[in-house]
Amino acid sequence: MTETIDEQPTATWEPYDLVYVDPDSNTVVSKVELNKNGDIKALPYIPKPPEPGKEERRRSWRKFYPWGTYRSMKNVFKVDGKPRKKEPTKTLDEVIEVALKEPYWD
User: Fold this and answer.
1) How many Å apart are CA 79 and CA 27, to the nearest integer?
2) How far apart are CA 5 and CA 65, in angstroms?
3) Is the entire prediction scored with pTM above 0.70?
4) Among 3, 4, 52, 78, whose Cα sits 20 to 30 Å from the Cα of 22?
């Protein structure tokens, strides 16, 4: 059974609201919940299902969503800003082949 968490629109968050953030998609998950003692509940991270043909790795530790004020999470995780740059996926062999065919100084 997979659970999904509804993402809230960004217009509803005040700068000093405590929120959980999904670092993979750079979105706010929900407002922070408190227990009876006034301590913050840890919201368990719900991993995405593995791609077909790849097995899921088991981890010995649990992962939780990071939380903080909306203002600080907006700066740290770029919640409302531009998406983060993707890491290059080309291998060194592919890059060298292109560099030999098309040198940048010509």
Assistant:
1) 5
2) 12
3) no
4) 52
Question: How far is residue 16 from each of residues 12, 40, 43, measured CA to CA in Å?
Answer: 12, 15, 19
* Residues 79 and 73: beta-carbon distance below 8 Å: yes
How is residue 81 written in tokens? Answer: 């800003």
Side chain identity, residue 22: D
pLDDT tens per residue, the chain (106 residues)? 444 455 544 457 888 889 999 888 888 988 999 999 989 998 888 777 767 777 666 665 778 889 999 989 888 888 876 666 777 888 889 889 988 888 777 5
Amino acid of residue 101: K
Residue pointed to by tokens 């592919």: 94
